[in-house]
Write a structure and sequence with these properties.
Elements lengths: L2 H8 L4 H16 L3 H14 L4 H11 L2 H4 L2 H10 L5 H11 L6 H6 L4 H11 L5 H10 L10 H9 L11 H18 L3 H13 L5
Length: about 210
């Protein structure tokens, strides 16, 4: 069974209810204020080269520390929570705070997800294409692909790609185009497709 058939089967199972619930949560976050969105951005900064599940746990524990803690305090909290890169992530988060009250307005000024992502990559340290796409999906922008090595492993196993040595912008966008084609065939947004692919590869649906 290929990945297309597997996802179609999952959409006729209890997994779809969990996916639909996640999508609803993403759309609800889109209606929140800038500070709530900023906390989600901090979560995505934490996920770079780190475990997503543990990043969720840290996000729940730290909460408003993302908004207000001094850099040294935030680094200590991240270290206590077991983050792999507490100091550099704390620095990125503190530097990004200049946008904590305006990020919603800034992103709303762009006409599509591609432009929003470019702004994030250029203006937020610690945010690459994967992290920017992840953040935007989590605030309800479903037209971008979140490509990490879980997804690459799956596509490689399916015989759809050869494994890239690195993920350049050009390669990222090429893989995103492939995933958009798969999503189109199923009739779902590519941001929703990611949740099914993650489930196939890991058995989990996180965010």
């Amino acid at each position: 069974m290929n990945v297309l058939d597997t996802i179609i089967d999952l959409r006729n199972s209890a997994v779809r209810e969990i996916v639909d619930k996640r999508i609803k949560e993403f759309r609800e976050l889109k209606e929140k204020d800038s500070r709530e969105m900023f906390k989600e951005l901090c979560f995505c900064i934490l996920t770079a080269n780190f475990n997503a599940k543990r990043s969720i746990e840290i996000q729940k524990r730290l909460g408003n520390e993302f908004l207000n803690a001094l850099e040294e305090e935030l680094a200590d909290s991240l270290k206590k929570c077991g983050h792999r890169y507490p100091r550099i992530r704390a620095r990125y988060i503190v530097e990004a705070r200049k946008f904590r009250d305006s990020i919603k307005e800034i992103l709303s000024s762009f006409e599509n997800g591609d432009h929003k992502r470019e702004w994030l990559v250029k203006n937020i340290k610690g945010i690459g294409y994967k992290e920017a796409s992840h953040f935007l999906r989590n605030i309800g922008c479903l037209d971008l692909a979140i490509i990490d090595f879980h997804i690459i492993d799956l596509l490689e196993k399916e015989g759809l790609i050869g494994r890239p040595k690195s993920l350049t912008k050009k390669r990222y966008l090429a893989l995103e185009s492939l995933l958009k084609d798969i999503a189109r065939k199923i009739g779902i947004p590519v941001g929703e497709l990611d949740l099914y692919l993650w489930y196939i590869e890991t058995g989990k649906i996180l965010k």
